[in-house]
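Model it.
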Amino acid sequence: MAEASGEEGQSSPSWRRDELRQLRRQRRLRRLRRRFHSDPVMLRLPRRDESTAATRTSEVQVGPILETEELLGLAGTSRRRKARTDIFSRLSFWKRVAGILISVAVILLLTWITLNPLILTHVEPCPDDWLYYKKKCYYHSEAMEDWNSGQVSCSAYGASLAVIENHQELSFIMHRIRMVDFWIGLRRKGDKFFWVNGEAFDNNLFHVNVTNDGDCVHIDSNFISTRSCSSLRNWLCTIGQSNPNTNS
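Modeled.
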């Protein structure tokens, strides 16, 4: 009897260990089941057909270990799918952002080109030895001629004696043209002055010092005056959008 009780005492701890392992396995299985059924990712998994579900149920019933592995496998698969979906979503987002930025850049470029015509078309807008200012070209002669000959010489270039349209152009001519005495395309006819293109002179543009010496207008370092059209001076030609080469 003593020997039997001793053997029973020795076998009891092993049996208890197996029972504890079984209980721990069952608790782990219950936790995985709760996690599986409460996981929103798992709830979005597509449902299998009945035959597949029945087969999987039979596989799960083989034992707690197989069911645990099955749940872990499904959870891992769902997370890998979710990770791939997140990657694709981020890539799609950045593609949309890049497309928007490119569209905005193209719109801004087209707007700038519309408001500011290409400078390349004006790299060399004037012939050699001519000055460029505000869409007009200017040429000051080295030779000296009378007013009519100066107009003929300008016409040979497809230009005319200078027609001044505004105060900015007058300031440019007075400060940038390296001549101190030259003809411009203004001439008196009766009591009025006219430009060589036929337009009447605006008295608000500048004052003409009228002399008894002639009717043709020249600019010197200090004054804009009339002189004899037959006197010899340098001349200033202009060619631009409003200067036809007409003789007078």
